[in-house]
Amino acid sequence: MIDKPALPASVRSPLDAITIEKAARRFDIPCGEGTMVWRCWGDGEPVVLLHGGSGSWTHWVRNIAALVTAGRQVWIPDLPGFGQSARPPVGGDADALPEPVESAMRELLGDAAVDLVGFSFGGMVASFIAAQYPARVRRLVLVGAPALGVNSGWKLVLKRWNHLEPGKERDAIHRENIGRMMLARPESIDELAIAVHSGNLPRDRMKLRRLSRTDILRRTLPKIRCQVHGIWGSEDVLYRGVQDQLAPALACAPDFRGLVQVPGSGHWVQFEDAAAFDEALAAALQCST
Q1: For the segment 1-29, what is each residue's pLDDT rounded down to a tens digit?
Q2: Which residues are registered as beta bridge partners of 72?
């Protein structure tokens, strides 16, 4: 048996991210015409993290060690159609993913209830799972999730990058796009942010997503019976100028427990201010049921 490396205390570079991946246990679960790849770290009560659109497990690369240190078993899939996972059997948006994700959790975790954390697109997926499979989800934590129906006029223009060969020019465009969409502070756009973002984008095979522009999450929240928590960056571009409407929208959930807005952080809050995010997440996961 090959010993796994220790998790780095902080994740600052692509080499740290490689160490995080090497420390994982990997599981390939049948999905569509291939498999859904899951990674697992630690032991204890399970917490499942779902990444955002055009992402992979690496959206959580700076948050895994804190959860493991707190005694949690961390499970993260590459959602179907992203990262190293095959497309879902049918469909091409968030509503196509609850069944294959639940099927995989049943194979990996049996009937165990989990704490489910969803970032952005993954927040929609997590909410659908909580509504459709209530016995599966003990707590739901939404992070920068779209589709709350409070910013219908939101628009964002990103620069094209895929016509360029890998290199400095392409990385410069990624840096600019990350600043427009994902991170609020220029100094947050470091080598690791660019490596994660540029590594994930070409593997996105779910490019016709439309549900994030609707109010589907707001309409789903009343169907969720577990406790619901929210963690957002105060500068999340998806909700710029309407941050005061976030908590009332999330309160459509019958057991809404509260919203934490991390000051000065953007959409990818768990990366931009991992320490503050980890503290907020720990508090949510310790909230009595």
Answers
A1: 568 899 998 999 999 999 999 999 999 99
A2: 45
